[in-house]
Design brief:
With 121 residues, this protein is α+β, with helices and mostly antiparallel strands. Helix content is 33%, strand content 24%. A hairpin with a 4-residue loop joins strand 2 and strand 3. The longest helix has 19 residues. It is globular, with a radius of gyration of 13 Å. The two termini are 19 Å apart.
């Protein structure tokens, strides 16, 4: 079975338009507050996870801060919502481990979306 999505761990500059699009769309859908959709001064310093569906459309994003906090986790409604969220967090944890950041694998992420939210099909 082919995975219906891919996750890429990238710097802000490499994916800013797609990352911003996910955040703005999530804000317009009421999934995140408007302030959570806006780029901030930390974005350039963070590593970002970007989830794309099989068609290449951006459907999720998250970031890990220089202090190792995973935050701004958002996934647009999708049938694989929980798997996408988990894959993005795993990608950021892997990045932190590979780069020797201060992030501890057992630190809790600061979720932007509630885990209990169900995805529309």
């Amino acid at each position: 079975m082919n995975n219906p999505f891919t996750v890429h761990c990238i710097p802000w500059q490499a994916g800013a338009p797609l990352l911003q699009d996910v955040r703005v769309t999530a804000s317009e859908m009421g999934l995140v507050e408007k302030s959570g959709a806006l780029a901030d001064k930390l974005d350039d310093q963070c590593r970002h996870a970007l989830a794309l569906n099989a068609s290449g459309r951006a459907i999720g994003c998250a970031r890990i801060t220089p202090d190792g906090d995973i935050e701004r986790v958002v996934v647009l409604p999708h049938e694989h919502l929980t798997q996408i969220e988990a894959a993005m967090i795993e990608a950021l944890n892997d990045y932190a481990l590979q780069t020797g950041s201060r992030h501890a694998a057992d630190r809790r992420s600061k979720r932007t979306t509630p885990s209990s939210r169900t995805a529309d099909r």
